[in-house]
Amino acid sequence: xxxxxxxxxxxxxxxDSRVLFAAAVIAILAITVYARMGLVGSQGLFExxxxxxxxxxxxxxxxxxxxxxxxxxxxxxxxxxxxxEAPGLPYLTVIFYILLGWTGASALxxxxxxxxxxxxxxxxxxxxLAKELxxxxxxxxxxxxxxxxSAGNIARTAALVYRGDTFIAVPLMLALLIMLKGLKLxxxxxxxxxxVLAAFIISTGGLIWNxxxxxxxxxxxxxxxxxxxxxxxxKPELTKSTLIFIGALFSLYILxxxxxxxxxxxxxxxxxxxxxxAFYIPLLLFAVAVYYIVDxxxxxxxxxxxxxxxxxxxxxxxxxxxxxxxxxLLYLIPVAAVLxxxxxxAYTKLKIPRFFAIFVAGIAVIGVxxxxxxxxxxxxxxxxxxxxxxxxxxxxxxxxNSTQIAYAVGSxxxxxxxxxxxxxxxxxxxxxxxVPIGIILFxxxxxxxxxxxxxxxxxTVGFIALLSYLVVTAYLQYNAIRYNxxxxxxxxxxxxxxxYGIVRVYRGREEWAKRFASISFVLAIAACTFYLAFLLLxxxxxxxxxxxxxxxIAAASLALFLVADTGMRAMRKDYVGRLAFAIAVAMLCGYLxxxxxxxxxxxxxxxxxLMVTEGFLIVVVAIWLLIDSLLRILRRxxxxxxxxxxxxxxxxxxxxxxxxxxxxxxxxxxxxxxxFLSAMSWMRNNTPSSATVLALWPDGSVVExxxxxxxxxxxxxxxxxxxxxxxxxxxxNDTPDSQYLYSIGKPQYLVARQYWLTELTxxxxxxxxxxxxxxxxxxxxxxxxxxxxxxxxxxxxxxxIYNVTLVNRHASNSTALNYTAYLSQIxxxxxxxxxxxxxxxxxxxxxLEFNASAGNYQxxxxxxxFYSGTILEGAIITTDTLYNSNLFxxxxxxxxxxxxxxxxxxxxxxxxxxxDTRIYRINxx
Length: 925
Fold this sequence. Notes:
Blueprint: H1 3-6, E1 11-12, E2 15-16, H2 17-34, H3 48-62, E3 70-71, E4 81-82, H4 88-100, H5 107-134, H6 137-148, H7 151-157, H8 164-167, H9 169-182, H10 188-203, H11 205-208, H12 213-232, H13 236-261, H14 273-295, H15 306-325, H16 332-348, H17 354-376, H18 378-385, H19 401-412, H20 421-428, H21 431-445, H22 461-479, H23 484-505, H24 510-541, H25 546-571, H26 575-599, H27 606-634, H28 640-664, H29 674-686, E5 692-694, H30 697-707, E6 710-711, H31 721-732, H32 738-743, E7 749-753, H33 760-765, E8 777-782, E9 787-788, E10 792-798, E11 802-809, E12 819-825, E13 832-841, E14 847-851, E15 859-868, E16 871-879, H34 880-883, H35 886-893, E17 906-913, E18 917-924
Parallel strand pairs: 5-6, 5-7, 13-15
Antiparallel strand pairs: 1-2, 3-4, 7-18, 8-10, 8-16, 9-10, 10-11, 11-12, 12-13, 13-14, 15-16, 17-18
Helix pairs in contact: 2-6, 3-4, 3-30, 4-5, 5-6, 5-7, 5-9, 5-23, 6-23, 7-20, 7-23, 9-10, 9-12, 10-13, 12-13, 12-14, 12-22, 13-14, 15-17, 16-17, 16-24, 18-22, 19-31, 21-23, 22-23, 23-28, 24-25, 24-27, 25-26, 26-27, 29-30
């Protein structure tokens, strides 16, 4: 606990501090629950995956608590859909169902509320992890708060959400906490017990979620960095304890092998066998070597000083990197040279404190080691990040058909898209900006002021473990939006330290302020150097970055000159110079933020995230120096502690309001709504118990979970490229294609939904069409009242860009209808006759088609008018390709009177319809 907290009174405003602490905890837990209740009024579960797991849980309970290998609810073959998810996920609900059965709670009710319990556990564990980082109850409370209001965390821990990554953070957080506690113990035997316990807890992740190897990666990266730290800092006790924990990792290997043998882990993603030993054995051997060198006090020339050890590891890491990647990142050499040159200049010319030069070098070392570890484990981490190898980029030009199918699936799976900056802000709010502040302030505040020759290192064991947690999960988040819940925990902890660090800085640390100018100077130089290096790299890889390169060189050079010139005067207590120094840094900051704003819409690329982070950090430096300089020039004093408290309250209030509004504005995923669930209830009550169903894969999980019927595809067990690909081809086809229905086992019912049109682009792309641009439609609205004359009625429809004019011509004394439509662009002359017009009665679902004869039209479009009685409800204009597809026919044109998807061998009969869903019975001849 810091000195300010130690000297704090037992009472605050006459209230016992322990009472205030308890009240704060209760308030945060209340916010945790309230912010996750936005969907409790909805039926069922949040997304299709949850409905699938509900089916598995129901089957497990009905099978005397033995989970089946395949999900066979009704019809098809007994081994239709393999349950590929880890079995521990459904068993979590089954266990609670057994424990709470006496209360009358159903499995569905437990599923709906279990994620909220997980959120509470994560909030509590975040407190203890933050305490390991800061030894401060305030920081722990702030960490609890940031987890409670993290929209990214709520995305997986809200009521109704049931997924593997909902639960996976708990074993990781608990294992890291046990590891941090165990490393402090003096008894090797007790340390070994903690090490085995932590390894066991980590191993349970594989029983819950197929993506769990990432938590093994976090754990191993933590121990690897701790080993390097104990070597550089020359800490024999830490070296011994780290060796014990690394040795205990073999128990993790044994446990995972046992899980695979008993089918407790059902995925090839598990880090077992040679895949585990390839990393474990070199790490173990290196740990033994480090222990021998440190514990036996072996004297080698290069290890005689801390600087020598830093440089040795830095150089060794560079060599390993260049060897592993075979020269593709040679830019590391000039970057390292520039960095070392800056450090040397800072140490010899500007008299920057020696410890700070070593500190910055240490940061560079850690960065290189993290990069090396991620490259070495890329095969596993990237496999998790890309969802079992499904790609999200365009397939190679010479790709096989199966490869094209896999790429199509990946490219249209929304959760696999890379995050945009707006998505990151929506997920993490102000915490996104507080994280870099937290890291910097930790490194600056932690024992910098009371350094001595015996203990001069600012990095701690807790910091290394949590930094590993942040790095791996941030890497996953960079690859796909689906991992925002995983990274929300370390973001919350470091954001908490950022806010706590600001408060700590403002608590009368005058001696810290005296060194701030020199520290800011080195930070500014480092930021400019890394930014320049990044622009050089960008220009190297892309000729399109040439302009950005010139801008960056000019801006960085100017900033370096201004910083060097005014910074030197700042060191001589020239406060006017310090003000100029602050302005120079602010100018650089403005440039970086401008660039970030210009590129933020392009996604969460390394480019704009780097600039946003640097820009925000330099803003903090600039604001501090501006305030400090102005106060000294005006010879005024200000109670800075009140500023700190004000900042904290603003962040807390804004984050709470922002998150609660987002939470209660959320809706169920994949178009799940009461109408769809009503249709599934009808199917459960009005179809044979052996019925089989063909539905889109997300809808298939709802068919299984809510209708209790077997779907040919579902969002988990049945999601594979072959089934999805051929179903998408069937929907895009313009013929009934009854051969497809026969080939998949003659499903007895087909479910079609208007929601398909919402995801039309992705759905069609699953079939890898040659011309996907032909499957499009546009919604139109009536404009004004129709007008008529003796020979015609005219209607106008528009979407703000295009106008469609519908003309109904009729001869005198004739009631025959003859509709023709023309398309025009607003502001342009010319009308273009389109191919067809369809009048659709939404009350009866009957429709009339009017098609122009061949050669008598200019555009292959169809205008579809929706009306009820005499009321025009709207219109859509589609390409003829989409209009003639099975997808469009099933959604609109099949009804209880006719169905253009039927033919001589298959006949589709509509048996149910509402404003969202249609159910067809398929009769085979």
